[in-house]
Amino acid sequence: AVSFTDPSSSLVTVLNTEVGSLNEVIELWRHGRGTVAMDQSRQAARGAAPWREAIGSIAALAVSFTTSIHRPLPSAPWQ
User: pLDDT at residue 2 above 70?
Assistant: First the structure.
């Protein structure tokens, strides 16, 4: 782990789909401090050699990369 990773951030799950876009991978992260934590985690990942190697190996296969932000419903256990 890189020292400036926000402690409120954690990887929840990594999923892939067999329906829809070919070879789609979905990473679900929880960032307890919102976009501030998301930006810190993104910067930390870019500084980590294993992350750069992983992205480098799939970048040639990727058609697109997207980011979206979702808030839990009021009834959800994650608040």
Answer: no
